[in-house]
Design brief:
This protein is of the alpha/beta class. It contains 26 helices and 29 strands. Helix 3 packs parallel to helix 4 and helix 11 packs across helix 12. Bound molecules: zinc ion (2 copies).
Length: 773
Amino acid sequence: MGGTERGRELLRRVLAGVPAGESPLTHVTDQPERRGRHADWPAWADPGLVSALREAGVERPWTHQARAAELAWSGKHVVLATGTASGKSLGYQLPVLSRLAEDQRATALYLAPTKALGADQLRSVSALGVDGVRPASFDGDTPMVERDWVRAHSRWIFTNPDMLHRGVLPNHARWQSFFRRLAYVVVDECHSYRGVFGSHVALLMRRLRRVAAKYGASPVFVLASATVADPAGSAHRLCGVECEAIDEDASPRGERTVALWEPPLLEELAGENGAPIRRAAGSEAARILADLVIEKARTLAFVRSRRGAELTALAARRLLAEVDDDLVGRVAAYRAGFLPEERRALERSLADGRLLGVATTNALELGVDIAGLDAVVVAGYPGTLASFWQQAGRAGRTGDGSLVVFVARDDPLDTYLVHHPAAVLDKPVEATVLDPVNPYVLAPQLACAAAELPLTPDCLATLGGPIAREIVDDLVQDGLLRKRPTGWFWTSRERPHAGVDIRGSGGEQIAVVEGDSGRMLGTVDPGSATWQVHPGALYLHQGTSYVVDVLDLEDGLALVHAEDPEWTTQPRNVVDISVVRTAQQENFAGGVQVCLGEVDVTSQVVGYLRKLPSGRVIDQVPLDLPEQTLRTRAVWYTVSQDLLEAAGTEAPRVPGALHAAEHAAIGLLPLFATCDRWDIGGVSTALHADTGEATVFVHDGHPGGAGFADRGHAALIPWLTATREAIASCECLMGCPSCVQSPKCGNGNEPLDKEGAVAVLTAILNVIDTKTA
Ligand SMILES: [Zn+2]
Ligand SMILES: [Zn+2]
């Protein structure tokens, strides 16, 4: 069977069970086969390494691997941004190991965002057996007794940003011989450093370069990335050095059929405020998975939550039990937290076909060696196109076709995507958003940097520029730094590193503890504690549900007990927003103003709803919790009374129209910024005290911002156009989760005026788009 036919045939089988006239397909396309292009091994490559790679099955490198390796070898910083399973590892293994083989004292550092990926890469480098390199991991799991050995003898250290920040840089004197010879820094999966975490890592990279320079080294950065727009720019923002990008993928790929799929509306169920709802993406994925397993197609189903992955596997097994008992055992769930051996056993079974179907969270997304499958089901947009294509890229054997099915969840972004195929299939992948001059990130990072080595004016130039200088002055005033003729010095004996959480959760975490056993289940950001773990809240941990008994904000503790009630909880809050500083402002003649700036978002959780799975509300429970204020960045627009009236939106409809426009805009921003709808928030009001007009704000959810509001501002017209489109094209009558309802609305999704939102957005776009035209 030819390539395309295989994918098409699988799709036909999957559709066979769908009732006639109810096709969930919104779009199908065939992507052609790509032939691989080989290069020769470079003359400088270490012969021992080349024969080890040959033995491992790599006869010759692909051209993109060879070009990246060549640049890195010649001392240029390089970012290799190609698809899943395109062999990015070889692009850095070749120059790094050749250098370490040639110069018996040279060292290298490898950084991965997750321990699992680091462990995989360490295993693969160790297997190549290059003499005298002694690759070793150095992370939180490395036993104390081994750490001295690793520091003294390993020439290629595998770690993560957390350990580099807390364990390596603050103790750089003990690492002098390692830093002195540091030839390469490998930053793997660098597109995952985004938002606040990305901002921290960007400054961490600058600290690393500063410490290396102190010992006379200026390492070459080799970055590996998913395919993203502007990889060179993203790499430069992350590492602070000019990088050349290699983004032409020369690895072969089989033909691929991509299907966009929208689950049907359920007639028998109604959601919040009587809105129609769709069959859940997870159950739909389970049915597709079962059908594909019956066809003996090796399939991965990506589901957004861990619990969802388990439920999807379970549902698929139940469906298979009705068909063939032998198939039941050939479907499994994969979750984070598996031991490495468990993971590898599962990967092997999937590779050799003993397992046919695996439902997984995106834990499998990062680097794990699974590719060449017959089919991939993506249930729910994974947040970025980069992730989407990384997941889809698991499908596709050379010489044989494969199928990718994207199943939309019931939310505005997913709905928009299945109805606008070009946004998935033809759009360049988003650039990674991070903001290395966020003052909330910069201040603690500058403190860490000063504690490592005194800051000089030159350092400040690379660590944030003029704003860094202002922050340093503040740190001097607070007595944390002292200015001397040679620079700024950290004054305390205690280093600041332990108190700086680079994952960007903002301050002391609230510990979630099981009251009876005292077992700590997890942590919650202080900023979202009253929302997530208020008394009475349902808290999910690894598939088990708990109910919160007490939230003690002062001691940073939430006490819970295991309980699996039939309801879920949904907090209610009141939110207020005030403008602190307007950084940019544009006034349009038609009655629209667009601004970007700093805001204070004050919110208070005032109660919660208990809801049955059907969406029916049991009751509303009031709560007495303190207000919380978040200073962050926002983009906002105002609409004049005249324009609202001209758009046919009379005064009573304005709040619902703006609220609906705000929800949908939050849902669609991830299309333009690499964020999740949970990274951002919004406020809309018919009359705002600071602007004096009807106003819609969309703000970052992190202190100081993470660049998302800025990105929304930069992409305002396409963003609002997509928002308008998403609402207008939804087939519901009065608004539903696919268009204007939001799962995180603190106001119970009221009031919402779908038609009014379309009218207001159309009017705004007419005004602001004319000006640019
Ligand atoms: Zn709708
Ligand atoms: Zn709302």
